[in-house]
Design brief:
Length: about 160
């Protein structure tokens, strides 16, 4: 038991950010990174521009790379999340609106510090994954309505012929 710090040691370590990002922050950042990769993958499938669709998703990796340092993680998540919100709102004509949930998730990850505010962090994590679930549902319903409107699966939607 000589190697275990006391309560004061743990409190100091948490205050100084020695434990890195909390699991809530990590989950939200990984959710944003995976969703961004998913949206980029769908963009590559839909449009014939090759790997160019992956370029907007590359900054999502930055907060994931600094999990070990809490202050740097918060700064990276705030900057990248704010940029994704900005470009999601003002870049909707370029298809960047699909990255808007990534910005929301990263901003929630920056605030959801489970070491300092565990209840708030858990609540923000639930809200973040609800945003992700609603966005995935919306993408799925849009893809379904697009496939049924264009007559995917055979035939023409205009003439009704098989």
């Amino acid at each position: 038991m000589t190697g275990m710090p006391g309560a004061a040691g743990w409190a100091r370590r948490i205050r100084e950010g020695g434990n890195g990002a909390s699991w809530e922050q990590r989950a939200l950042a990984l959710g944003a990174a995976f969703f961004g990769a998913f949206v980029a993958f769908l963009g590559c499938l839909e449009f014939d521009v090759g790997i160019v669709c992956l370029v907007p998703a590359t900054p999502l990796v930055l907060p994931v790379l600094v999990f070990r340092r809490r202050a740097e993680f918060r700064l990276a998540a705030l900057i990248v999340g704010a940029l994704y919100l900005f470009f999601g709102v003002f870049g909707f004509m370029l298809g960047l609106v699909f990255f808007l949930p990534c910005g929301v998730l990263l901003l929630l990850a920056a605030v959801a510090d489970g070491y300092r505010r565990p209840v708030t962090a858990a609540l923000l994590t639930v809200i973040g994954f609800l945003v992700l679930a609603v966005t995935l549902w919306w993408l799925g319903s849009a893809a379904w309505s697009h496939s049924t409107a264009t007559g995917a699966g055979g035939g023409s939607a205009v003439s009704g012929a098989p």
